[in-house]
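Quick illustration, no need to memorize.
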Amino acid sequence: MEHALILGAGFGGLELATRLSESLSDEVQVTLIDQNDSFIFGFSKLGILFGHQTREQVRCPYRDISKPGVEFRQERVTSIDPQTRHVVTDAGTYEPDILVVALGADYDPAATPGFVEDGYEYYSVAAAERLRDVLPSFSGGNVLIAILGIPFKCPPAPYEGALLLHDYLVDRGVRGATRIDVISPMDSPVPVSRETSEAIVRALGERDIGYTPGRRVSGLDPAAHLARLKTGDLPYDLFIGIPVHRAPAVVEASGLTIGGNDGWVAVDPRNLATRFPNVYALGDCADAPVPRAGVFAETAARAVADDIAAKIHGSGPIYPYDGKGSCYIEFGGGFVGKVDADPAPALVRRLKARRGPAVNIFSRTCHGRAACPR
């Protein structure tokens, strides 16, 4: 019986544990570790932000996991040695036959000067709750929504936040007294997909939401309420930022990020394997040429499960990971858009060069809007 240790119970870790249970429960014993006691879908944070749901309503407790051959343990990972597959947590040590690092990305608000003192965000539950609590007292002024670093989780999320904020302020009767601007360091919302970018920009324009591409906020002046850009300072009454993302400190300390782009874990894009035998990385911490979003962590987990099965059964190389996936964008007003992603050309380039661009966001095609049930 092989022992697989999965570090992180997000989209990727949960999907991999499920796949291994369904296909290899008689051959692989899975230990799934996460420091949290429950899973929360990313889109639920928007529900929390605008007061539609509470933290308790969106929690999916890990104690409810019941899969043959899978054991969940709530522990914090403190050390990873990928060479020996030796893992230390706050509750014990492990030396599995197969190690999968799916610890996601951490947020680094302090990387943007002044952001901790005078900014808000909604990428974590606690931060969404904090912003939720100040929105009712906002009576108008300048709102800046800025992407502070790339890559970041769920590329549509900053624009969803802007569109839903518009609806919220309209309902409160203060939209006419408010200017909303979105600032991004990228040249378009989804740089390589003209159709998707045009749909988002059009939706922003229809709601009189300003959009400034190709600009990055380098810091805030909390005393003056000014956002610093190379092109000049912008005043704000409410600053909402998408914080800088980074690999978790325990992953950086392990040496897994050596050879990866911008501090992420270097992986073979065909099967998400690292340079260490029987060690994989998937999801937001991996330097794979796909957007950082839950659906792509899930498809990566399927490729890892296939590769593990192929090695155990001696069946040879798997069909290379294709990175395809679909997700949805909330446009507000009760409408959503479906977005399909097929990064196959980028994966082909990566397989040839094994060195990709610093920003890995690939083509999505918007398939229009459909009524969003509420």
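The chain has two domains: 2-105+247-318, 109-244.
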